[in-house]
Structures are given as structure tokens and as C-alpha cells.
């Protein structure tokens, strides 16, 4: 499928930056309100036993966009080919206009809904480049953010729907597999009510074990100062050892869901994939605020320009075998599809969500000298004669390189290779075959990458062998 634009903004730069421009929505003037609290200086240090695996504290000059290395900007009213109005009925067009989404120079992200003279609403929705957040086997994942909801209440708040949440990685590139892939709503709020909702979406829609489209939800008022008037810390934990999900506000647990509440099959469907990506957005209107208000929202009295402020978002893990980027155990059938991101060791590669069919993740930023190792791949007793890999490239003209297969050691000679250059874009995928020397038995497989230039030249989604 063509590369969805939301998957191809500026990405983390290891060598050359890959970038496309998004069209900004019509500019509007944001209303800046005094805040009751300021951002913290930085992400808090990890508590004992926790290891930080990712974070953004939104430092930067006032009016600049949040880091493209960390965030993807969702644009318009839907994912390409996905449900209209983001599947929620919300009405605002999402933009990457700094008037709608920017850092404020004081360590906060601002997402600000605006209304133009014709009554059209704009807002913003950003999601992490990474889509592999999950607990280590037998350990716990913790996703946390310090957030002040839009400071507006009463009739003026009708239609406001701020959220801090996470979606299962297989949603990327599919957009029609919700809710089976899982959704964790860490913090939701509508219509300026002093309450935080925590919600799990799973299974099938409508109905199912998660009572869709409502989900399994709980809510409570924010401790102390209201949700709208002050920053509060919202935390979600996924405990793999206990098969339990937990929701907190300011350290106080207010919701939990265990595997036995939804069934093993549903639980496995939402947990046995590459992981989750995190989303921050402020919707306007839609099913949730309309349902709570008992009428369509926003209304003429709804006031634009009240931002959601985010001091930081951070991800930690505890226990088990390590963080979500730790290598999975080796072993595999050479004749099945071997996911490129499931390496046991690598050099120079990064993992990101893919727009290729089937979604999931791929390895990228591949350049001369990079490599990955895949342990204990079983070729059987009849020799494999062919190797194929699913690749994409947006390399500049004249930049190309080799994808090579080596066995048991990077210093061994390649048993086969193919050359690849620009395929039409970093998310423009094709399957390229190559002949290899006959291979039998069980081997550690190395994919090595060789180029005459230092620039990135390929992304790799998966590979396989054939007889």
C-alpha cells in the first residue's frame, strides 16, 4: 500500500534525516491562560527497581514542534484508509500547526483546540515513533505522564476530550483491527468534568469481554486540586507476572483489569504482539463527550484555545528479563517469515512501526557496516537455495547497497546477497529474492549490510528462505 503520511515525518537521525512536509491548517490565535503550576525541571528519576526505557520532557524553544525523533504527527480526520473521524466521531481536523501543537519554552507540550471564523475546529494528535512498549517477560511496564487537562469547565468545556493513551502496534497499517489489538486509555476526560477515566478496550466490537464500545472503565476525581486546574501524574502498569493491568492518578490506584476478566484468548491477542505506541491528543466532540453531555458537542458556547499541557511522558520497566527492546529468544523455522526486528544482537539498527501490509515493526536506518544476528534458525535436512527479504528504501539517487546472508559468524563469507536502492520511499515495500548456497541444519543467521556510501540505504521488515 502507499506510504501513509502519518508514518513518514522526520525520524530519529542517526545519519541522514528523512523527512516530508505536512500541510499546516489555517492559523488561529491561541488563548494563553495563566497556569496554576509550572513544569518540573525534567523527568523524575526512576524509583528503586525501575529502569527508564524512553522519555520526553518537551524541552525546546517556545512555539517549536515536539521532537520528530520521538513523535509522529497524525493529520486530518483519519488514518489513510481508516475509519472516518478517527473512529470516534470527533470533528476537529488534526494538524502539525504550532498553534495547535508545540512546546512552550518552559518544558511543557501544548495541544490547543482552535476554532476559526467559520466555526471549523482544529486540534492535534501525536503518537510515539516507537511501537514496542511492553513489559519484559515476567516483569512490569509503566507508562506515566504529568498532565494538566484543558483549564475549562461548565458549558464552555462541552466537547473537550483530552487523552493520554496507547494502542497495540498491529493497528499501524491496518486501522480496522480495533479493539482486538488492545487499547489502554491511561487518562481520558470529557466536558471539563473533574474526573479521570481509565479504560481498557479489547476483544470484539460491539459487546465482547470488554463491553465495547464502552470498554472496561473506572473513573474518579483528581486528588486535591481539580484535574483542570493543576498538573497530575497519570500512570498505567502492565504486570506480566500477575497478568494484570493497573491505573493510577498521583500514585493512587483507581482501576485494574486481570486476564480472568476477559479470558485467555482475548488477553493473548492484545498482549502477544510487538507492543504499544503512546498517543497524546485533544479531540473535540465525538461519542464520549456527546454521550456524557446527552447532546451533540461542541456547542456555540464552547470556548476554543484551552490547551492540554504535558510536562513529560516516560516509560519504565521492572523485573523480568529487561526492557521492551531486549532481544527475544532465538530459534525459528527458516521457511517461515522471520521478523527483522526479532534479532538477538545488532549493530547500527533502529526499530520503528511499519506501514507495510500486516503492520508491526521493521528495522531501519540501515547503512554500511550494520548487521543483525538471528540465533538457531533451522533449515532442515533438505538444502535451502533461495533467500528473500521485504525491503523499502528512500535513499537518494546513487545510494544503494547489499543485503547479505552469512552463517554462524560475521567474518564468514556471504552465502548470498542482493542489491537494493531507492524503492520509491522508506515505506514503499517490495520483496526481493536472491539465490544462496545450499544450507541444511541449524545455524545462527547474520544479515549484514554493505554499501559504498555512508548514507542509510534500506529498511527491512522480514526475511525468509526457500528450497
Short account of what is shown:
This protein is mainly β and 467 residues long. The protein is 4% helix and 40% strand.
Break the fold down into its secondary structure elements and pairings.
Blueprint: E1 50-56, E2 71-74, E3 93-94, E4 101-103, E5 109-111, E6 114-115, E7 121-123, E8 125-128, E9 139-148, E10 160-168, E11 183-188, E12 196-201, E13 216-220, E14 232-239, E15 244-249, E16 252-258, H1 259-262, H2 264-271, E17 276-284, H3 287-293, E18 308-319, E19 332-333, E20 338-339, E21 345-347, E22 350-353, E23 361-366, E24 371-378, E25 384-393, E26 401-407, E27 416-420, E28 425-439, E29 442-450, E30 458-466
Structure write-up:
The protein has three helices and 30 strands. The chain is mainly beta. Strands 1, 4, 5, 9, 14, 15, 16 and 18 form an eight-stranded antiparallel sheet that branches.
Helix content: under 10%
Number of helices: 3
Uncertain segments of ≥5 residues (pLDDT<50)? 1-39, 322-327
Give Rg in angstroms. Answer: 23 Å
Secondary structure category: mainly beta
Q: How many beta-strand segments?
A: 30
Shape: globular
Arithmetic mean pLDDT: 88
Ends distance = 28 Å
Major β-sheet annotation: 8 strands, antiparallel
Strand content: 35-45%
